[in-house]
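hiii, so i know i said id send this last week but things got crazy w the move. better late than never?? heres the sequnce for the chain we talked about at the cafe, plus the structure i predicted for it. fair warning i was half asleep when i ran it
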Amino acid sequence: MTRMDDFIIFLRERNIPETTIQRLEEDKIDVSVLLLMTDDQMRSYFPSYGDRLAVLGFCRRKETEPTCRKSKLFERLKSKLSKRQKIDNSQTENHATRTNISQRTERKVEIGWMHYDGQGFVQMRAKKGGGTRKLSVPKDWKRKELIEEAIRLFFPDEKNSHGSVSEFELDLTNYQEVSLDHETTVGEMYNASKLTMMRFYLTTRKVAREVEAESGVEISDSDTIEDLHRNNQDQNLPTSSRRMNDLFQASDTDLIFVESTDNNDTSPLHSAEDVNLTDDLNVAFQSSSMTSLDYFDSSDVVTVFTGEVTEINEQSLDDTLPLSPEPIVPDKKILVVHRGQIFSELIAHFCDETLAHTQSAVEVKLLLPNGQFEMGHDFGGVFRDCLSEFWQEFYDQCTLGNNFKVPFLRHDFGKEKWESVARIILFGWKKEKYLPIKLAPVILEQAIQGSVKSDLIDNFLKYVSENECAVLESCRTDFCSADQEELIEILDNYSCRRIPTEENFVQVLQELAHKTLIQEPAYVLEQWMSILGPLRKDLQEIENVYCALQPTVRKIVRSLKFPEAMNAHQKDISKHLTAYLRECDAKRLSLFLRFCTGSDLFIDKTITVDFTDLKGFERRPVSHTCGCFLRLSVHYDNYPDFRSEMNKILESNVWVMDII
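okay and structure toks below
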């Protein structure tokens, strides 16, 4: 079939008149001729503009197509042959490449550096001296040669910003973080893995050094660290390697240290301060058996060191700090916890059953995220501050409820941790008369007395949300006028299986309260009973204790002690303070107490108010939690300025003991 035949078929499909087709045949007008015609010339054959465009398009397509079917087949066959030849050439090249690779004596590898940070191995970036290094190594190199090359790359002159290579335990792992075999070569690893590029990691972990005393006494890794790890392996404590630049003042002191890697705390304000009678944290151990604590290892253990003190340098304090030196307590234990990690670390410490019975010989040291100790020493205020932070975290992480909280079961809290929480309750009460009063009273009554004295329904109404409490209270008062649909929805949330009526509503409420407050936390109460038994005599009337510990404006104002002789400016500031407290709600009253005493509860401490001459940028309220001192500047022009500054301090909730 010729192109003219195709053209005639196309014209008939376009419904072109037969007379026009005959004229084209007679005039011998084909596709090539039509492409050369002008629009006026084509109009004589195709009067319609649309027909002219269609014909012109058809002619152009035919002009670019092969002239016959054979030419199309030839082009297709030619294309297939060229593709096949390319494949044959690439296979030949690949075979030649594989042959060349097999004959190489070197292979390219990548080497990185991973360091143990206390929780796992973390790859070190280039800006920290790490990064991924690419190099060619002999195929017969083994683990030993690769480690030596990695040390040369990441520890030039055998040290870097992280320390000397001798301070680390070294290993070499593959891309799957599996330690390499000592006898396997690089070539064998390539043949086994079939990878185009092998990557290795030099892994480092801080090792515990021997701590040597001048008298020759030493604590070795094998004798001390491993034993402690076996004794504390299930405490699962977060740790990190840090140098301890400060030593502790103590006599026969046990230092119990728990490390952490969490550095997410915000930068501290310079608000709260504590009182101490030493001039520096560093205390010289001057006996012949002096022990030097260089640093602690980074394993997940609680590390205990013991040293002796023969001389303590003291420095007289400012006249406004009227505390007298306290006697050295024998067998004192110092608990080191990280600011922001008090909840988990205090639980880890109190897994030790002996701590709850030695409250007079236990002190707390707080470690900041930068690795430095807070300067305040614990004469009561630091521990009260730790208790306040611990219970706030406990309420958030381990309880449910609104005004009253109830412990709920967590899969990561077993018998040991719940017992540790009970020891903290016992220890806090015996040492500072502190009790977690946000726990529903029936919880502690059941755990301490073995029976419930408080009203279950009243406790339950403070456990539920304010909206639910309003609905339930209205039902108790007038069941018929209450919103029945909302009541059914609320009861369904607590898995109620009975339809409430005016006659059975109180009984249903009693049953739900008992299920929620007693039955659901039964496992926790079982663990607490054996430990909190000694409090049975002190806490026979728990509701009275709760009432006494609850902060109120009247209690706090009456606990303030101002100087007997005050000038006009000081009297104005004292009035500002009293007015401020009368405006505070319950939450802010708790913050004020914690700022002044370390405790967010009213533990019947007298708050001594003193005045300073600070002004300008230096002006701020200053507190000493151990002695319960509050120092206020006299340079406030009016009450709004005083209130604004107090609010900023209390609402920041980031206080650091920064005075000794």
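btw Residues 210-329 have pLDDT under 50 and may be disordered. thought thatd interest u
miss u guys!!
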